[in-house]
Structures are given as C-alpha cells and as structure tokens.
Amino acid sequence: MKRIFVKEEVCIGCRLCEIHCVVEHSKSKNIIKAFKDENPRILPRIFVEEKGKVSFGLQCRHCEEPYCLEACMSGALYKDEKTGAVLHNREQCVGCWMCVMVCPYGVIRRDLNEKKIASKCDLCLGKEIPVCVARCPNEALEYREV
Amino acid sequence: MCIRQCAFEGHSYDPEKNEVISKEDVCVGCHRCVTLCPTNALTIRQTPLDFRANANWTARAIRDIIKQSETGGVLLTGMGNDRPYPIYWDHLLINASQVTNPSIDPLREPMELRTYLGRKPERLELDGNGGNYRPKEPLPPQLKLETPILFSAMSYGAISYNACESLARSAHALGIYYNTGEGGLHPNLYKYGKNTIVQVASGRFGVHKEYLDAAAAIEIKIGQGAKPGIGGHLPGEKVVEDISKTRMIPKGTDALSPAPQHDIYSIEDLRMLIYALKEATQYTKPISVKIAAVHNSAAIASGMVRAGADIIALDGFRGGTGAAPTVIRDNVGIPIELALASVDQRLRDEGIRHQASIVVAGGFRNSADIFKAIALGADAVYIGTSALIAMGCHVCQKCYTGNCNWGIATQDPYLEKRLNPDIATERLINLIHAWSHEIKEMLGGMGINAVESLRGNRLALRGIGLTDTELDILKVLPAGR
Amino acid sequence: MRPTKPWFEKDISGCSLTGFISEDGKRVSGEAIIQSIALMNERSNGLGGGFAGYGIYPEMKDLYAFHLMFDNTLAKEETERILNELLFVELQEKIPTRKTNGIHHPPLLMRYFTKVDENKLFELEISEEDYIVETVMKINARVKGAYVFSSGKNMGTFKAVGFPDDVGKFYRLEEYQGCTWIAHGRFPTNTPGWWGGAHPFTLLDFAVVHNGEISSYGINKRYLEMFGYECTLMTDTEVMAYLFDLLWRRHRLPIEVVCMALASPTWTEIDHYDGTMELAKAVRTVYGSALVNGPFAILLGHKKGLIGLNDRIKLRPLVAARKGNTLYIASEESGIREICPTPEKLWAPKAGEPIMGWLKEEYQSEFELPRTRISDRERSEPVYSVSGVY
Amino acid sequence: MGIVIIGNSASAVGAVEAIRKVDRSLSITIISDEPHSVYSRPLISYLLSGELRPQQIFYRSKNFYEKNRVRSLLGRCAIHVDFKKKAVQLDNDERISYDRLLIATGGKPFLPKIEGLHTPGVYTFTKLEDANRILSILKEVQKAVVIGGGLIGLKAAEALNKRKVEVTVLELADRILSLTMDSTASSILEKALRKEGVHLITSNTVEAILGNGRVESVRLADGKVLNGQLVIVAIGVSPNVEIFKGTPLKVEKGIVVNERMETNIPDVFAAGDVVETYDKILKCYRTIPIWPNAYLQGKVAGYQMSGEEKYRYDGGFMMNSIQVAHIPTISVGLTNPPSEDGFQVMKKFDRGSGIYRKIILKDDLIVGAILAGQIDRAGIMTGLLRDMVNVKGFKKELLNDQFGFVSLPKSLRKERLLNIK
Predict the structure, then answer these.
(1) How would you class D210 by CB atoms within 10 Å of its CB: exposed for 0-12, middle for 13-18, buried for 19 or more?
(2) ipTM surpassing 0.90, yes or no?
C-alpha cells in the first residue's frame, strides 16, 4: 500500500503540513474558520519535529502488523481491509493510552480538547493524495508504495 | 509561518497584542512569506513614504548617502545592474517569412539547435576519394550543445550546494553545460563532469589536476560583467566545512579573489596560461576566456583569439553577481548587445571568426533575447539570473547578505534546505525546453531550419528607435527597410 | 539602369530554370534551351531572363571571356582602363544582339577576351583564378555603372530584362554552339528588374541559375566577406556562385562535399549513421555558415559539367531526366519533354541530393568523383520511365 | 482439520484473526464459560463508571464469529482435556475433539483467606458478570471498600467514585501500584486520587468482612472498622489452570510454552495470562498478565496452528498504561531496579506541572521507564526498549520533554522511520 515518507533533507520546517492537516480534518474545511472559530481546535495528525536545522514531519506509519492495534483493548483501532490504513473509531475509544504506550513511532497522541480521544493520521480517507503531501511547498513529503 | 520563513526577521509575534507585526525597513521584497502564507493574507508594497520629489536627489541617492555617512563603507549589492540604461534587445525586431518562402513548423519538420563550441579550422582538408572521404585530421575539441544555452558561472559559496547540484543535474539532462565559477567542484558533482565547465579565476580556488580533468571545458575568468576590474570576496562565515574543502582554504577565512590574475599582466601571459591549461589536459578540452564587456572589447577579443582562446565569453554590464560594490555594478562596463556586435564584426574583419566561438552573458531574460544575440553573431548564450529565477529567486538583490530566503545564495543549512534539488532541476529543464521551443518557432517563422543559418545573420533583425550610430554598430537595418 | 539602392533587397523569385549537358561533349545550338525555358514562361514575369553556354568560344578557349554591361561610355572607359592595366585584352567587341520586341533600353554590352600576365601573379603570389576574381570584384564594386556578368573561359552568360525567349532572340543564341546550357526565367516581386539582376550569376566559369530564396543570405554573405568576396549585386543568388567558388575551387572540397555543406543532412540523420557520417559532422561544424537555408533549386554550370541541387528539405521543384548521353534538369517535367519527348529515365531528385552531369574527358582527367552522394540519403528512384526499359 | 480454543478473550481473538489471515477453511471452535460473545474485560471499569454503553463492551464487530467462521460454545465450561484422545470434556458431558488445541483460559482473581469472604456484596472485578452484578446493586451502595491498590482496584475505585459512591482503597503495601510504579509516581497518583475524593489506606488490609446476609462493614488488621455495602476484591490474578492439575501438561506458575507457544504436549498450544513466558528484561520465565502480550501470544499461536511458522514470540515485558484522576501514567519494563550496580536511573520531576519522567538504563540499553502527566510519544521509549537499541549517543535527550526522533542520530532515525514495522 502507499505510505507517506519524509525527506528531512528538504523539509523546511514551515509546518504547512500541520496547518493543512487541521483544515482538512476541521468541520468547515476552511482555514480561517478552522483556526479562528472552531473550538476546541483539533490537533494536527502530522507534527513536525524540529531541532536546530533538522526538521521533518511525522505521522502514523500504518504498520503491517501494528502494535497499537494489538494493544487496543477497546477495539477503537482497526485496519481498513482495502487500503491497509490503520484507522481509529472515536466513539469506541476510552483513552486507555495503550496505543500511545506501544507505538514505536510515537505518532498517536492524546487529543486533550476532545477528551481522551487519541488522534492519529487517517491518510485523509479516500483522498488521492493526503493534504500534508499535496500541500508541502518543498516536496519534502512523498506518498508512494512501500 | 511568515515569522519562521523570513531570514531578515521582517515579521515578529507580539504576545501582548497577540498579533504578528511586520517591519518594512528590513523587508527585501523576496516574496517568501507571500508565497508560503496559507491564507494569502500577505502582500508587499513599496512603502509610500518617500522623500520630496527631486529629479537629481532621488530617494536612492539620498538613502545611499545617509547609509555611507553612517558606515563609511562601500555600498554592496547583488544581481545585475538595475539602472534604466537602454536595453537594446527591446529595440531589435525579428523577421518572418511570408508567401515567397514557406515558414516551417518545428513540430513537423526538423528544426536544429545543436551547436558546437570551439575553435574550427578555416577549411576542411580531406583524405580518401570516391565515396569515402574523411577529414585529414580530427577537429579541435568541441563542446556539443543540444540547444545554444549554458548556465553561467556561479560558484559554490556564492550559491548553495543544492543550487549547484540542480544546475549540474539539469545541464546533464539537457545536454548543455553549467559553469562552476571559481568555487571549485564539489566531489559529489564530479559525476556531471561531462556537462561541466570549470573556471580558473584569480583566486585559483579548488584548482587541481582532477578538477581540470573532470571538466568538459576550462574557462579562464578575467572579468565579470557586474564588476569589471574588481575581485571577489566570499565572507568567512560563508566558508563552511564543505566549502573550505572544495575551495581548499581554511574554514571560516574570507575567500578573496584578487582583481587581476596575478600571473596575467599582459596578453602574452594569457597565452601562456591558456597553453599551460591545454598542456595540462593534453589538448582535449576547449579553453574559454571570460571577460567583462568593456569599451575596447573588440580589440581585446581579437587578442584573446590570437592568444589561443577557443571560446570567448563576453559578460555584459547587466550580468549578475553574488556581491559587488553598487557603484561598480551600476557604472562600469557596456551593454552586451553592443559589445557582441563589435566583437563579432571585428573577428570577421580579421578573418578569424572561425577560430573561436562567442558565448555572451549578461541579463538574458527570455528566448527572444537569446535569439537576437545569436542573430547578432553569438554562438551561444550564458544564462545566470534567469536560471536562478527558475529555481525560485525573486531578484531581491540581497545575495551578498547570505540570508537568501529561497535557499539559493546562502550557506545557512536551515535556509539551504528550502531549495529542493529535485524541484529546481525540473524547473530548470522546463525553462530551457520552453525557450528552445520558442527559438525553434522563431526560426521556423523565418523559414530557417538550422540555428547556424541564424548565427550572425543580422538581416534577421531590424532596429527600432535606434540612432544611426547604434544601427551602424549593431550592423542592422532600421525597421521598414 | 542599375537601381542605386543603399541596401540589399532580397530577390524574391518564383522563376523557372532549365539546363542540359551532352556528356560526350557534343555541342548544340542555343535554340533548344530557348525552346525549353520559353515553355515555362508562366513561371517568369518578363522582368529578367538569362542563359549560360559552355564551349561556345572554342577558338578562344584559353582566354577569359569577360561579358560586361555599362550604363554609359564613362563607365566603359573607366573599366577598359582597369582591364588594360590588369590584363592583356586580346580581343574586344560588342556582344552581337538583334532588335527584339520586349527588350528595351539595352545597356552597352561588350565582351573582352583576356589573359593574365604571369609576372603579375608572380609578384602578388596568387593564383590566376584569384587574380581574375579580384579583378571582377574590383570592377563591380568600384566602377559605378559597370558590371561584369561573365568571366569564365570558353563560356558565356547572356542576360537581360524581358522574357527568356526574347532574351535568347536578342542575344542571337541560335548562333552559338554549346555542350552545356542553362537558362532562367525570372519572377522578381519586389525589386524592379534590372539587367544585372537577371540570372545566371557568374564568377569565373561558375554560372548559377536559382529559383528560391536564401533565408541564410545574411550570414552566407558575411561568411563570404571574410574571404574577400563582395556581394554587390543586390540579390541573394550571387552568394551561390561565390560559395561554389570558395568551397570547390579555393578549399578544394569534392563537389558532393560542397553540396553537403550547402544542403547538409540533418543531425538526426548524422547521429543515426554516426561513424559513417563523421565527414558530414565535420562539414557541418566547419561550414555551418555556408549552409544555404530556405527554399531553393539551382543549376550550376561549370567548365566540367552541370549540377542541379535542391535545398535540404526540397521546397522548390526540380526534375531530372536522361536520354543517351544527355542529362536534363528543369523546374518542370514539361520543360524537359519540350525538347526531349521520350526520356529514358525521369526522376525527382531528393532534397539536398545533387544531380551531376560530367563532360566525359574532363571527368576522366579530373579527380575521381562518384555519382553518389556520400550522405545516407536513399537513392532517388525513377518516378517515371518511358517504355519501362533503359 | 479442527482447531479448538478454550477461552474467549484477547488471546482467543488474536489466534482467530491470525488463523483467518492464513486459512479461511480451518474449522475453529471457541469454548467459553461466559455466555457472552467476544468482549473486552478491561472495559468493564468503563461500564461500571458509565462511560461506556453496555454494547460498547463488545469490542469486535457484532458478527465476529460469523465473519471468522467460528463455532462458538458459549456458557460451556471445559472441565477436562483428554490429551491422548485429543478431546475436550464439557460440563454437559459433550466431548469436543480437536486436532490442535489452544488453551487461553486466562487468569482468575486471587482470593485471600479472609473470614466472611463469601458474604453477599463481595465481588471480584474481572468479568462482565462482576460488573453487571455490581451495577445491579449499585443503588443501595453509599460506601464501598476496594481491597487492592493495583490497576484493577484503582480503576474500580475510580469508577465507583464517578458513580458518587464513597470509596476506600486498601493496600497492603505502603503505596498504591507498588508493582508497576515507583514511590514518586505512586505519590503523584495518590495525591490526585485523594483530591478526587477517594480514600486511600496503605500498609493495611482487611481481616474480616462483617454483616449477616449482607456486607455491612469490614474490620482492618489494625482493628479499625469501615462501613460499606460493597466490597471489591482486586489483589491480582493467577493463571487459570485448575482443570490441568494432574494431567501431563507441564505447569509451573503458569503453563510452560516455547516461543511457538507450544506446550510440552504435541498440538497443544497455550497463550495469554495462563502461560509463563520469557521476560526480556528480568531474563526469566514468568507470567506477564497484560493485554498486548495476550493478544500477541494468541496471534503467534494462531499462526503456528495454521502452519504459518515464521511468527515467533521471543518474550515480552511488563508495561502498563493507566489514567486515574485525569493523570495519564505509563510504566514500562523494570521500574524499581534492585539497588545493586549496573543500573543507571535518570529522573525529572516538575512539581508545578506534575510531569514526571524516569528512565532506567543498563549497559546503555533502556530497561524501564515511567512517564506521568505527559505521556505523548512514550511509545518511542517502548520501541527503543523492545528493540534493545543502544542509546549511549543520546542518553541525556531521553529526559527531554521534547524527546522525539529528532533527538536520535540521523542514521538511527532513518532506519527506524523508513523501515515500517
């Protein structure tokens, strides 16, 4: 399946990926509303790690044999048969943080605004190209077959 | 966003007021923030604040004086001459054929831009007979260009590694050449040697056997259009690890190129260096000599050809630079159009035009400029600034600060990353493809299907709004005649 | 008579051409060629016609036959002073003409049979031909109102303003016997025809008739000027004559290599056959400025024979035919059939492929010249064959 | 060819899902003494607290059995296994023969010797019934006593607290979560719980449960008496191996298995809380009754049973994630290292924010970690521990709140980010 990869050599740490991720997953899908009006503001599912000159965006790797899925005792995490994407059912999640504990990439996070609901990348469900990849101004993110 | 993007700290966040404020005085107008702002909230306008109108004491004149009276220093600048001198390209018009001579559709008919740069014999001597003749001796070394465009000398140091890599990769893909400038050749780029012209300049940075052997041709740099008679100065902070290695100078020391080449004080000396380099490379590579277009270029060029130069590179006063004293850039040298016209004519008058190819540089903005240059007599054209613009440069003229927001004229690893070589390479290739296609269209329109029939064909041009003297120098007819 | 224009203007022309050569050297009168060109009057507009015949002065064959036209006696005297100073003039006479409707205000037409003083050559250390060329250039460039329109040995050019058949009549060509003839009917559209502007254009024994337009004239001219040629005749065709003179006579290139320079194969072809096309590559690299670009069909008469050539993508008509020892080349098949109703072979030459006819004895005595072009161009096939066998 | 699974929780589910990845045709039979289709035991505390609606307990799709073509015998108790004849004896005399058997009977609550333990109103807290029963009497309960300050105890206590029941937690040790946390972390949680209104009594325990026909109060070791209408016993679980006593099945503390999850008897596999496996950190065999291991072991067993041999279980380690009183805490591996040398302990505690980070290293390998208050990206730590990555180069970064892949050396970072698990 296709996954998102980062080329840290050309990641400029502009964080546009985070911004567009938030917009994409906001109710209005409008950047101004998403940031000014929509409260609580949702978390980006990609986040840019940065230290000195090094920076890169990171989001769920959608593992073949996901630890998070094995650890999830609420059944909120599941693998989409078709795409193989690891998805998350907010209804079912109880916020036990087992996934947070086991994810070796540390890309599942607690969304404190929406209480307990862990937040993770969904590859922009059904989108041809995830917005973070599409909107990266320097092509530092690529969406390709593993 | 804007705050992180601006290397000149033009934007800052005020926590009290919880808003982003901008400082117009440091803004260089590079458009980085405008381009990246996700909400298109930004635009940049000339600040309306100006001095009382005065034709002589312009704002620029006044500001310069203020700045210099504060610092007591020479004013620096980047890119090419930005003053409103006449641009002769805009006074030359191109011909097209009607009725009596069919124009040619480059998409259907062969349309040839291939160009060979280098010394050519006056006549071809053949061996053999009936059906299989072959040249008595092989031609002198030639540079094969699939389209008559090259990337001008821009040194690693003046521009970032990513920029160099992009130029090298696109030259390789296009079957043309890029020029290392005087910054030496980074080890990773040796693999593009077949498309590399290496420069030997007054600083002799990074010049050694492998460097010369790696290249397709060698260029001796005497002068640069943006700063004729002036040396170069790469400030120490730009001389980072890699650069110091490549240039073979201590890390952090200023890289100073003397104004003259201290082993060239006369034309005989030039001849010696040319032949030294030819010897060093067993006469396998054409040797180019680059000079700034100055008042007596024609005579100098003739001397250079007789001194053994295979390629004459002429750099007009609109040629770019990473850093030059503003007063020099804006006042020294002559337009490339006139220099080219007189050099080409002079070499023909002396019957030695075939002994060297002419490559011109200096502010070429589009395919028409290039087309007109070839019609005036150039074999090919060096483009620098337009290549940078293709890569993302917005001509803010702050190259000398090393804070290039587009990751081109900088060595700051944080800024350098902003230039993704994959993207830049693709954009450069696109630009050259586009221009080549336009040149083909113009050739076809004239009913010509090979660029050699345009080269020096000044009947393809007509002048408009030019004085008789200018027409005479350019050797073109006025429009309508 | 010669328009005194400060600038060159292109001789944009439709034009008809025709020519033939009896390779066995059999000489025929000028009537045939007149007949052939007359048929194609449609292609000309009465603003110029001309002929060149080879082997027409057998009794003077070692002397350079200068044909000149003068606006006035002043020009004539000035020219004769120069001629006498530079050459031995063995014989000088008016060129015989007859009054003809359609030929108006002829200039003074003279011919001078001359030879060169060896001593002069010895002093100047130049070849006889170069000396003649310089003389021609000098007269054409310096003497106002004088124009040398023929300067070869045992050949002559005859041209005027008018329809070609009238021109032929005017010059009484039926009285000349030649083994090679070429003719031209001119269709200039934007230059007032003047006598000198008519084809053929000549230098030494080279005579060129041309249909087409040379878009590369600008550079061809500047290239030739590097070698001392002066293009003074205000028409693009003259560069053809000079290019042949430079490449063939002075640079001693084999004729098909010359043709290769004038109408080179494309780089695609060269790359495709690289190795075998080393020569073509060298030729293009060295002689790029001699590439004649734009549409053209030409006939080149010279002392050894006749050559027909098309531009590299054949934008002008040219047809060739053979019968016995005679090679015919013309703009139109009709022009050939008019004088050779049943050719054994009739074909349309490929772009850039020269058709060459050679006077046998000359051909033997001269360097080996294959009939085939060195280029990879596929051989042209007969488009039509009378009686199907030959 | 038939596979029989005794048990219906994480291991069973892991096994079924693994088998079906390999083979759709194998027949699978699940035997469970509970009448319910697949549900998640850890969720019962959320059911008790009312955070989940009853049907949300069933954490796999309603048609889990149909979808995976599983024959389910629910409410049936396996009372004996005849390993020779390869058959399972059910409480209703039915015999289910198998080709391959997976024992996933899990753990059962450990019951201390306390007088009056069987008084109505005393419950354990591991199964759905437990939760349901407690819920059924909840309205008569004003006060409750939870015996055991471990994970289950605290979740139960918190749930009851949410239900406005006054809860007292009794812990024998001097602090809660003594097994998984260190004293600092424990005190953080104790403080928070008390703030929530939960009473904590440590270094003490119940001696007797009083009341006739109904729980009324408990008497503590120190003689103190606490009133309450509900007592929950949650002092841990032990492997559920009753029915295998006196059979050839090798059982130590739990059933002994190899890394293919095979027992000493051919074609008999075991997984989950009922087995003892290798502890990567303590380097010994022991039971590690935690959900992720149970599922993983079940999965490995499933693959093995359906002939997909490449999957192995090379051991696990203790790890727990618990959020009580809004404080998320994660503890991984060895959290209270024996004082002897060789261990390096790094700590950072910010009283203001209540954020606590503790990393335990041995020979530059992470062997344990505790994060409290701020647990985001704890998984990276777990990953480094799991894969035994040498952290010499970036030790000090480990305590940094901003710790992430950016803190790793480029090569290591690329290796870990680009090779997707």
Answers:
(1) middle
(2) no
